[in-house]
Amino acid sequence: MTKLPPLQALFSKKNAYVIAYVIIGGLFLIWMLFLDSHSWLIHRELNQEIEELNGRKSSLQQAIQEDKTTIEQLENPDSLEKFARENYGHKREEETIFIVED
After folding, report:
1. What is the pTM of this model?
2. Which one, 43, 61, 65, 99, has least CB within 10 Å?
3. In contact, 78 and 72? CB cutoff 8 Å
4. Which residues of 38-52 are buried (b: 16+ CB within 10 A; e: fewer)?
5. pLDDT per residue as tens digits for the range 14-55
6. What whole-number distance in Å separates Cα of residue 69 and Cα of residue 88?
């Protein structure tokens, strides 16, 4: 029985198919993970963007709820006058306002 040199043993007909499958599979895996338009990297970036947008959405929904509460309170004329005085410095005629800052 003759022993084949290591390179010839590696590239024998049986191993040639296995090596071809491994190389093609590896190239396919690299292509799908990094190079394709639907790659893992792009999906990761899109998922991060979705998380950011969901966070923004929840904060905006909270701001909308606060604004709705404020609008409901401002429908009352007394609270409307109080709001205008506190936030915008409005005053009645012949009234003097002194602003004291701490």
Report:
1. 0.53
2. 99
3. no
4. eeeeeeeeeeeeeee
5. 778 888 899 999 999 988 888 888 888 889 999 999 999 999
6. 19
Give the integer Cα–Cα distance in Å for 60 and 92. 35
3-state SS class at 102 = coil
What is the predicted pLDDT for the residue at 19? 86
Please tell me the distance from the alpha carbon of residue 5 to that of residue 64, in angstroms, as a whole number.
Answer: 77
Answer whether 34's CB lies under 8 Å from 40's CB.
Answer: yes
CB 74 within 8 A of CB 81: no
Rounded CA-CA distance 28/34 in Å is 10
